[in-house]
Amino acid sequence: MPLPLAYIQERLKELDSWAIEGATDLVKEYLFDSFIESIDFVNQVAQIAEKHQHHPTILINYTSVRLTLTTHSEHALSEKDFDLAKAIDSIDKPHV
20, 42, 65, 88: which sits with the fewest CB atoms below 10 Å from its CB? Predict the structure, then answer.
C-alpha cells in the first residue's frame, strides 16, 4: 500500500536535501572533490544498505554520485526508503 502524500512530505522534512522524483523515487546527488572520494562514499552507502537489506540505485559519474531509493516490490516509496535515506545522511561527506 503506497504511503500517503502528506506522510511522504512530512518524512521528507526529516532528511537532508533529498527530493521526490516522479511518484516512486527518493533521490539525492552528492558532489565530491575526486573520484576516489566518490567511491569511498559509495562503499559506505553499500555497508549501510546491506545492514538495512534495502539497496539504492547508484549512478557514479566521476565526482558525483546520485542515489535513487524506491521499494520495487511495492512499486512505490515505503518506510524502508526513508529509513535508508536517514541512515545515509549520517555518513560524513565533504560536499552535497
Answer: 20
CATH number (domain holding residue 60): 3.30.1360.20
In tens, the pLDDT along 9-30 reads 999 999 999 999 998 999 999 9
Bridge partners for 68 per DSSP:
27, 57
pTM score, whole prediction: 0.92
The contacts found for 33-38 with CB under 8 angstroms, 24 or more apart, are 33/63, 33/94, 33/95, 34/63, 35/62, 35/63, 37/63, 37/94, 38/62, 38/63, 38/64, 38/65
CA 16 – CA 28 distance, rounded (Å): 9
